[in-house]
Amino acid sequence: IGAHPDDTWCKNVGMAESLRWANWLSEEEMLPAVASNARIMRYGYQSQWLGKEAMWQKASAVAQRRLLALQRRRKEFPFRPLIFISHCFGGLVASYALLDARHDKDEWPGIFDSTTGLPFFGTPFRGAVGMSQIEMLEAARREYHEDKDSRRF
Question: What is the largest CA-CA distance in the chain?
Fold first, then answer.
C-alpha cells in the first residue's frame, strides 16, 4: 500500500557512500539467471493510501486493467505458463484477476488455465470491510506491536 514497483522488489546494497538498488526481477545475475527463458513483467498501479495523494480503488477494477495489460502482452502465446508474484494489495488484484479469468475464459483465454504459481507476500486476505484507512492502520499496529521482551538482531 503506497509502494512503488521500482523499489518494492529491490534491496539497497552497498555502502552508504555508494548505494545501489538491486532488483531481483531484472538484475541479470538474479531471477533472469535461473529462469533465462522467462518473460518477466511487473504491473504497477496507484496505491497511495495516505496524505494529499490518497486515493480509493477497488481491487476488482485494478484486476480488470491488469487482465487487459496481460492479454495484450500474451497475444502470440496465450497459453504460456504464468506465475503471479504478489505483494500486499497486489495479491487481492491477482486473486480477482484469476477469478475473472476463470469465469470468463473466452474473454481471457489461457490466463487461468496457464497459471502455475501464485505466491503472496503480505496480502490482507482477512480484509477490512467497513474499516476506514486509519482504523485499518490502527488494527495493524495492535496486531504487530513491538514485543518489549524480544531482542531483534
Answer: 57
